[in-house]
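Form 12-C: Joint structure prediction
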Amino acid sequence: MPLTVRTYREGDERGIVELLKVCFSDFNRWGLTVDDWISYEEGDYGYRRENALVAELDGRIVGHLHIVFRKVYLGVSKVDICGIANVATHPEFRGRGIASSLMRKAIDICRERGLSLASLLTGYGSEGYRVYRKVGFSNTAFLNTYVGAYDSVVKLLEDWGRQELDVEEIDERNIDSVMQLHDTWGRTLNLAVWRPREYWVSKILRKFFMYSFFYDKPEASIRLLFKDSSRPVGYSLAFDGSSATRSYFPKDTGVVLEAVATDVHYLKVVIKETLRRLASRGAKIFRLYLPAGTYAGLSKYFEEFKGAFLMDYVIDLKGLLDSMAAELSGRAKYVDGQTSVTVKSPFGCADLYISSSEVRISAECSEENTIEFTQDGLVRVIYGISSLSEMLDPNYVKRIDMSTKAVETMSTVFHKKAVYIPRIDQW
Ligand SMILES: CC(C)(COP(=O)(O)OP(=O)(O)OC[C@H]1O[C@@H](n2cnc3c(N)ncnc32)[C@H](O)[C@@H]1OP(=O)(O)O)[C@@H](O)C(=O)NCCC(=O)NCCS
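Section 2 - Result
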């Protein structure tokens, strides 16, 4: 019988779970069950078992991927994207184009559902990376991890002084304050994931997810809300490997998954107190999945490692830019007069009409003031990973045929911004 690529049917879950355990050592170690796989639907607006794709050969599931929908912040705009997760082909059937077929089918499904962007996380240069690159995904960026041992934490605790804040455990009574802090913070970033209340309650309070597919008992977590004179000013989410009941992070590891505050002084208190509690629970190695660069000056104490590699496929460029209209129009407030720019790329073409009152997009592609990006360049400029001037390199920009004013306007509207996907929501 020929290979069929199709969407999930009731009864597939056993074959999918078996395949995931064969293909991913972390699912195997953690002991993924069919009940886990089905329970991912609880409180997660983006996860539905119907959105699994399988490759079937002679009645056996030999390949799989899952489309996980996420609503992400691109500044103040919230954009629906297609997350591609858990791509797997049974070892006996690799190298026959199964994963590539699943990926192409996933992109078709995302397009049919009106989504403008597919995004995934992988290991740079891994088996998966090669497949995604061939299918046409961009090299976007690495996510960051800070790693340090106990002595790094001792030094940080000494240096960061005595300032303290009132601390509460996060629960259903104060979750709205945490959600408010998260939403304000999300708008300052690109790719933080929007979370409705039921998501917070199911995935962070009732269970504790360290990643979209791995969770443990809440007792293994540290979830803190920080207040200054009863005003919520920060929160943190962390995981204590030594209290884990299922094997995911090593036992001696304390993991900071999120640390958020309204300003950098509060942020230091949030991080300090979270690390102090992890250390007092016996953590010896510390991993902090926090934004790269200048986040509270953490790189003075911890080594920064390149972690998961982000790759993207723009399905509908006009649709994507349209969904960012609120953010782009906000940035255009200070531009002079009106400018039209044509953006070309292997993912398609769009015209932008930029004035101080709005940014409008059309699919016309008039080639008036044109900038032609490579697939990597287009995604990097949209996410603000590099500024336009940093990308004047043939790996990113193939051709610029724009007036000086158009270059200035584009640089204003597409400026640099921190890209960060909290680990809890990663797919
Ligand atoms: C990554 C993974 C899913 C790839 O699955 P796959 O079905 O072997 O992938 P494909 O067959 O589509 O592509 C693999 C290679 O076969 C080649 N190929 C594609 N069609 C082919 C065909 N008809 N005949 C022979 N080779 C083919 C591809 O071009 C690719 O070649 P390359 O490695 O030189 O780039 C698989 O290795 C796997 O399950 N790994 C473990 C889990 C994992 O790491 N998943 C990714 C997580 S992000």
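Section 3 - Comments
The pocket of coenzyme A is lined by residues 23-24, 63, 87-89, 94-100, 122, 126-128, 130-131, 134 (CB under 6 Å). The two ends are 32 Å apart (CA to CA).
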